[in-house]
Amino acid sequence: MQAFRNYLLTLLVTSVLVSVCVLQRYHAAYPGTVGPELDDSISTQYRDAISSQQPEMVVLGDSMVQENVDAEALASRLGRSVYSIGYPGSSSAVWYLIVRHEIAGAPVQPRTLVILFRDTMLTQPSHRISPFGDQAVDVFASMDDSVVLERAFLNQINPLGRLMEAYVPFYSSQGAIQAEVSQALRYGSASWIMDCSRKCVDDGVLTVLGRSRMTSETVHQEVVSVEGPLYSARALDFNARLEESFLPEIVRLCRENNIELIFVRSRKQYYAGMPGEPRGLQAYLGALQEYLNANGAAYLDMNGDPRLVPAIYTDPIHVSAQGRQVFTQVLTDLLAPLLSASQ
Amino acid sequence: MSFTSFDFLIFFLVVFALYWLARERRWQNALLLAASYVFYGWVHPWYALMLGASTLADYFVARGMAARPERKRGLLWLSLLINLGVLGFFKYYNFFSPALVSSLNSLGLEADPLLVRILLPAGLSFYTLKKLGYILDVSNGTLKPTHTLLDFALYVSFFPQIVAGPIDRPRSLLPQLEALRVWKAEYFYQAWPLLVMGLFKKVVIADTVRGVIDPIFGLREPTLLMLLVGALGFTLQILADFSAYTDIARGLALLLGFQTPENFRQPYLALTPTEFWNRWHITLSTWLRDYVFFPLRRALMRSKRALPDWVIQSAPPLVTMLVSGIWHGAGWTFIAWGGMYGLLIVIYQLLGIRGDWRPSAWWQRTLAWAVMFSFIVLGWLIFRAPSLGWVANVLFSGSQFGAQGERAVAVFSLAAILLYTLPLLLKSLLDRYVKETSLLHSLYYSIATIATVIYLNASAFDFIYTRF
To answer: Looking at B206-316, which runs of residues are DSSP E strands?
Structure first.
């Protein structure tokens, strides 16, 4: 009894002290806002490139686009200029922001936008987004992107989390505090013990802990754990997820800007812990295809192609250098009939 | 449903409220049973179905043993076959599936090993041991089978324990299930420090250290220095993670009015391998001692063929530790880990060093601790490594310190491990030298709570032992 009473009193006092320190150090408001604060500084790197290169087609996606698609080969085989945006670690929230600000917002827009996705990614608005903030969203979002705030961040914060974000400063600032502790340890210890500068540490991390030095099993596991949430029962319910996703927004933006929109479902090598495709995925994909067709967007699927064999993959989603040519050819063969028909 | 998730918080609050509102023991048990099956089947409902089926089988086997003592032996074998068969199938199928796949491929049948993996039901190893303990006790005549299916089903599935223990024994948990439970404030006063420490160890220490060492064990060829850092890190991570789970499980059980056994008693202070196993995962060690070690030693001593003394002394610890390794998982690393402890126990015995050995000279104690701690770290290295070949490759043909980048990674990883070790050391000192009601304890728990809130991420990692 007495121990618990002492604990409560001490917790109250220390919480107040820590909160004051955190508010001072990170210049945070009290009560805090729930979700990350967006500012108006946004990247224009892709918009500038699209403006100067004026490609006829843009291919958008995550690291799969970066690693699996050879944009030059695709352009020469399709006979139209192609600009590819493969943003590693991105998902539908970031794709929506790129479509809004960098593609639809470009002075000269491409005629066609191809989005490469996997399975349920298009209707998972918070996939790969940390509720405490996301670097990619910071880069591409402006202050009027409240839809991103609502669908990508706030939707995944439970009521207790919302309360704590507003009233417990050391909870809402956890990202900054953790980063500070981690950086102090990382740079402080290396500098103190072996006189290694920040750059030396960062270079060390990049070279030593890069994906190329990991075992293939580790890379597999990493991909699998990131992709796991795409196959929950909730994620596989297309109709329930559609309205809270960015898909209707992406479709609307392209329609308003007369951009031909093509979604291509990429082939994934396997689903962890499941003997084949997850149950419910085909029903989901059927509903997705129906929705896209009804809204003037095209749906293509790489999954039926026999050329995408396991041997060309280095992990469940990425292919090897040789596999890149095969993957690009399969994509070309899928896109070509559609593009010639639309011409 | 993880103990550290928001879903679980809501689940537990609802169960807790309804449980204490139901003032009758039968209703309390029925509610706990329903809650346990909801908890267990949360992600995969068929897990709960399998649990229910195997519980029914063992309930009737035990009843059959009591009703027809002449059939005891046959029923015991039946239960062993069911329990070990299910455990073996789910746990070791993936171990043998590559061989199966290559056989299929050689027959011209295409089967990708990654496509034929079978998911191990969480907690299967734990509740199988609970059921086996019950059946073996009934079979030995040291326990009367319970007449109530509800009580037995709850004994097997009790949700604070089902995923990763502690492996409670029927003689301890069943009488508590059969007794009336009335709320007492002391339940809460005993539970809160366990819950605070459990969450702190999991969220702040184990998960943070995991982020530091996982990349090291994921490398194709780490340097020796990185390997050492990784092994030290895992030594800290597994203690923090597993003891956190146990603390939370015990705290939750206490809030429901149950006393459950402790699983850890400062294991890294052990001076001998036997002492380590008396302090580490105590409920598993005592289970193995009672149902594997003692019966095997008795059988060897009573053997009609006079066996040499060294066989009688060496075989039981070796076999018991190998069983422990195999129980942990299907893989040569686990078998080697268990085998290493078996060998160590035998060697220490041959040197005349018993489990309770405690030299009077401080330098002897320090030396013995340093030697044992090195073995513990080596053991965890083998346990955590992706394969034995990987360990051998790094140990015997890897670079020692590597280039500057590799040294930098090793140094800052070690710094993080040392920093996150400090709270555990401090807690040990406080427990040893400072009164429980002292302000220092309160301050420690307060800072631990604040740190937990700071490190509380939405996507927490699973507890390590939920995989076994």
So the answer is: none
